[in-house]
């Protein structure tokens, strides 16, 4: 009897094995990965400025190379997921629409970098946590703390100061000045990034990160290809340009955003809020060192206000709200 009981207990234990411990849980690797990812994404604007290609062409090839780099690792998970939960026509159309939004983000932001300074462009395109919070409050009925509201106001004032500084840079020009136009495009690119993040929050409830990324990136590449044709942007460039396109995908794309979003599973929301500020700071420092770009006084003042505002706004957001997958 005793041996049978022992055998039964053994069988019961064997049927419910203990959950394997995540090898990265409680280690410094996720935090170190965020630091490395911030450095990687900070190089995006530098690589763009080093390229002499058409902005739409840069955006298209960056997406294309990113898909090529991700596909070998994503295809197995995608097949399994889509077999278990096939795409409906409505979901496919919506994901294609998200791809259009992402295409607009890259088209607007990369174009802005050809018109205004790296500091102004990256600061304004990073404005998206403010937009996400406002939309979340009105459409998703999400609560906002007093800190979040103060952060939005501070970031908005900072953006006004920054754009005014660029407006007065040449003694007060017009809203069609290159730098001001670049600021406007960067700000619109930030709004597109905000819409992309909100869409990601919705779709990531039912779709894995790789499946979602490949489908949306493919849509973005398609729309950027159409934009290039409409704008008559060339597709053929010297090998040096294709190397830069590849580095844009590998560095900021794979080692930047992909690694960054992997690490979000393990770190606290406070660290995520701080890490949002890393790209504009890192990009501005790299622009000073590698492009000899020195931001003006009002750009610095406005930039500091934007960074403080973004931190206060994002401090109340969950980890999944902090960036695109």
Structure, described:
With 325 residues, the chain is mainly α. The chain has 14 helices and no strands. The protein has one domain (43-321). 74% of the residues lie in helices and 0% in strands. The protein has helices spanning 2-15, 29-42, 44-50, 55-84, 89-112, 118-125, 128-138, 146-167, 178-203, 209-231, 239-263, 269-275, 278-290, 297-314. Helix 4 packs across helix 11 and helix 6 runs antiparallel to helix 13 (278-290).
List the helices and strands and how they pair.
Elements: H1 2-15, H2 29-42, H3 44-50, H4 55-84, H5 89-112, H6 118-125, H7 128-138, H8 146-167, H9 178-203, H10 209-231, H11 239-263, H12 269-275, H13 278-290, H14 297-314
Helix pairs in contact: 2-11, 2-13, 3-11, 4-5, 4-10, 4-11, 5-9, 5-10, 6-9, 6-13, 6-14, 7-9, 7-14, 8-9, 8-14
Average residue pLDDT:
84
SSE order, one letter for each helix or strand: HHHHHHHHHHHHHH
Rg, Cα atoms, Å: 22 Å
What is the number of helical segments per DSSP (H or I, 4+ residues)?
14
- Secondary-structure-based class equals mainly alpha
Number of extended strands:
0
Would you summarize the structure shown here?
With 325 residues, the chain is an all-alpha fold.
């Amino acid at each position: 009897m005793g041996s049978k009981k022992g055998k039964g207990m053994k069988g019961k234990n064997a049927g419910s094995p203990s959950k394997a411990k995540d090898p990265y849980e409680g280690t410094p690797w996720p935090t170190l990965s965020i630091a490395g990812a911030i450095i990687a994404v900070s190089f995006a604007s530098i690589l763009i400025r080093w390229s002499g290609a058409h902005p739409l062409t840069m955006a298209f090839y960056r997406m294309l190379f990113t898909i090529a780099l991700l596909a070998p690792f994503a295809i197995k998970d995608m097949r399994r997921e889509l077999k278990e939960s096939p795409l409906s026509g409505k979901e496919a159309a919506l994901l294609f629409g998200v791809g259009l939004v992402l295409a607009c983000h890259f088209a607007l932001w990369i174009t802005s970098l050809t018109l205004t300074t790296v500091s102004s462009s990256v600061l304004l395109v990073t404005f998206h946590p403010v937009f996400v919070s406002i939309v979340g409050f009105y459409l998703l009925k999400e609560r906002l703390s007093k800190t979040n509201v103060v952060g939005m106001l501070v970031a908005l004032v900072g953006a006004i100061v920054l754009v005014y500084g660029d407006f007065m840079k040449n003694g007060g020009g017009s809203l069609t000045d290159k730098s001001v136009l670049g600021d406007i495009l960067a700000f619109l690119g930030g709004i597109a990034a905000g819409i992309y993040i909100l869409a990601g929050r919705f779709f990531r409830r039912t779709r894995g990160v790789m499946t979602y990324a490949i489908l949306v990136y493919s849509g973005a590449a398609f729309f950027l290809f159409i934009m290039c044709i409409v704008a008559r942007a060339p597709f053929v460039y010297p090998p040096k340009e294709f190397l830069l396109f590849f580095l844009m995908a590998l560095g900021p794309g794979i080692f930047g955003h992909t690694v960054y979003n992997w690490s979000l599973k393990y770190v606290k929301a406070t660290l995520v809020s701080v890490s949002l500020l890393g790209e504009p700071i890192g990009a501005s420092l790299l622009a000073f060192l590698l492009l000899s770009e020195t931001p003006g006084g009002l750009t610095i003042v406005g930039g500091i206000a934007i960074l403080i505002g973004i931190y206060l706004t994002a401090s109340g957001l969950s980890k999944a709200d902090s960036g695109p997958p």
